[in-house]
Amino acid sequence: MKNEVKFKEYMTILCELHDRVLSDMMKDLYWKILEPFSDEQCEAAFKEIIYSSRFFPKPVDFVEILRGKKADRATEAWIEVLNAIKRIGNYESVKFADPVIHSVLQVMGGWDELAATMTVDEEKWKQKEFERLYEVIAGRGGKHPDYLPGTTEMENHKLGHEVHPEIIEIGFKNKTKLLQ
Q1: Fewer Cβ atoms within 10 Å of its own Cβ: the N or the C terminal residue of the chain?
Q2: Max Cα–Cα distance, the chain, nearest Å
Q3: Residue 109 to residues 40, 54, 95, 130, 148, Cα–Cα distance (Å)
């Protein structure tokens, strides 16, 4: 949030609704938590909390509204992966906007393996595995692979060919090669 005036207005409303007085340190904490998000996102979060919360919100309440709960993000990521599998298949190299997906799929055996071998009967079990791993890996932070190689790139690499894959970007906004 960039608009400090709006921030103060909403925090005052919350404090009055819940008969609370916040210290300067707590106000700074809420400000820092909201800082990475746009004014529009924060205003929507404040409104949601004002209209639906019976208790004074903790910082995590704002984070869950703004980022979504980990379980929700994991399910959304799985839907993105499934759509990519169905539309692209295992031969192409892919890059997801959410890099956590790369690490999760790598742990599950790789993009080419999952996209090539998963059957309809296995799909619900793979989803459970993916979502569980996503929550753990997303919570850890750290570095993730830049992209996931497809079968064509991996086979060419094994044969000793110089590899310059065309990478399909998935979930990126304002890109020409976009799959959503």
Answers
A1: C
A2: 70
A3: 39, 45, 16, 11, 11
